Amino acid sequence: MPFQIVRNDITKMKVDAIVNAANSALQMGGGVCGAIFRAAGPNDLQKACHQIGQCAVGEAVITDGFNLPAKYIIHTVGPIWKGGGHHEAEYLTSCYINSLKLAVLHGSQSIAFPLISSGIYGYPKKQALQIAISSISEFLLEHEMDVTMVVFDQDAVQLSEKLFDSIYQYIDDHYIEENVIHTNRNQIEYDQVYSEMPILQSEPEFNISESKRSLEDVLMQLEETFSQRLLRLIDEKGKTDAETYKKANIDRRLFSKIRNNPEYTPLKKTVIAFAISLELNLDETIDLLRTAGYALSNSSKFDLIIQYFIEQKNYNIYEINEALFAFDQVLLGA
């Protein structure tokens, strides 16, 4: 997945490069910085930092990863929060962009960030996350790289109170406590909320007004595979392949598999990511899901959150993923 948010220890991330929220003197500090120094080997890392000297706010420098799983450590100095009127946003944006450019320069294909400046530097977490997502998503429009935002806890991702309450109320109004399916043939039980296996249903559980469609359209769509339907929709919407998979937070290699194999069936979250990318309405989204053997369910919080955003005509996949993360659901993308 080109961009994801995870709860993890950044020193354990198996990526090409991790980013250290450093101080200007490149000295071992506390918080994330201290943890990275300790895991990498404080003496070796401090020696490498001494050889560099200093790093200005918003800039980035690079060292080896030493004892870390990551090959490189990119050190960037975030701004101290002073109320927002001292170019903090510009400096923080530069931290992400310069770190990403440095990663590309050194051949890195994957990178993990902490939420820069949101600790002892006092940057409000919600604003810090918005800048991180905006900077990274803009960069990914022009570059191929897997980017992970690593947070220690769910509180790091803070939706606005209004949005959180609105989604929560929507789930409360529509949720049906019926999410265990029994199959008589092999007596397997599984939770439909988290299952990625295709679930064939004759009708979706949502109460949706039927669209008027010609018999020719219906018959054509019944014969289409997921790959065929997706490629047709891309053409109909006037989109390019790259524009579609990037906006869907999908890896180019996965899109290539889908394009080259008409019988390929992706995960449900991947199908929905394409629906969001193409800004499909709810009818169109359900139709696309059916071609891959999936359906939406009122017993799935994940599905209800997706329906909420589609009904609101909000197709920003990064905002949707923020909401999914806040409600402890799987994120959209590959």
UniProtKB/TrEMBL annotation:
Domain Macro: start-end pairs: 1-168
Coiled coil: none
InterPro entries in alphabetical order: Macro_dom (IPR002589), Macro_dom-like (IPR043472)
Domain of life from the UniProt record: Bacteria
Pfam families from the UniProt entry: Macro
SMART domains to which the protein is assigned, alphabetical: A1pp
Signal peptide residues on this chain, from the entry's feature table: none
Name of the protein described by the UniProt record: Macro domain-containing protein
